[in-house]
Design goal:
About 25% of the residues are buried. The chain starts with 14 loop residues before the first helix and ends in a 5-residue tail after the last helix. The N terminus is likely disordered. The chain has one domain. A hairpin with a 2-residue loop joins strand 2 and strand 3. The chain has seven helices and three strands, in the order ααααβββααα. The protein has a three-stranded mixed β-sheet with strand order 1-3-2. Helix 5 packs across helix 6 and helix 5 packs across helix 7. The structure holds zinc ion. The site of zinc ion has 3 residues, from loops. This is M48 family metallopeptidase. Pfam families: YgjP-like.
């Protein structure tokens, strides 16, 4: 067998995760991937995964951020890792607003679900995705006010979002970095 089969995702360009960035940045990322340098780069910056493995820990961690920066915004009933969220382009997490009729009352509930791959990421990247979903409590769209709120909660938001997208691109080609 002379020919080596590449994994099916090998040929995919990383543009899906990085299409918000300039062509130049995207080319730099492709060069880093081809040189197999993205793994070392990310591990050097983020040596280990967070230890927030269960729902309770995740909830407490997220509520701590909410109570610090967004105390007055609507309450959240649930914050969970969700195996059903597949990370495709922007679908890293979901913020849902559920209305349920209980007795004769209509109860509205905010729920935050994040992709279960975030169980195995460094804390700063988990924080970034939680900040993103928390900001959606106030701002539905990815507009200026939305990103301003994200940066208020996490000043390094934009760099972290880039690093997360870099990791997602890396992960498609090489697999998980943190266990
Ligand atoms: Zn969003």
């Amino acid at each position: 067998m002379g020919r080596k089969r590449q994994p099916s995702s090998f040929k995919e360009s990383p543009k899906g995760y990085l299409n918000g960035y300039s062509e130049q940045v995207q080319q730099q990322v492709i060069a880093l991937l081809d040189a197999e340098k993205t793994g070392d780069l990310l591990l050097k910056k983020y040596p280990s995964a967070h230890g927030l493995n269960n729902t309770r820990q995740l909830y407490d961690y997220a509520m701590d951020i909410k109570n610090t920066f967004m105390r007055s915004s609507s309450p959240i009933s649930k914050i969970i890792y969700d195996d059903k969220i597949h990370v495709i382009n922007n679908a890293l997490g979901l913020h849902t607003y559920v209305s349920r009729v209980q007795g004769n009352k209509l109860k509205a509930k905010n729920e935050i679900r994040i992709a279960s791959m975030f169980r195995r990421t460094p804390e700063p990247l988990l924080k970034m995705i939680l900040v993103h979903e928390l900001a959606h409590l106030k701002e539905k769209d990815h507009n200026k006010a939305f990103y301003k709120l994200c940066c208020h909660m996490e000043p390094d938001y934009h760099q972290l979002e880039f690093d997360l997208r870099l990791y997602l691109t890396h992960r498609d080609r090489f697999g998980d970095l943190w266990c």
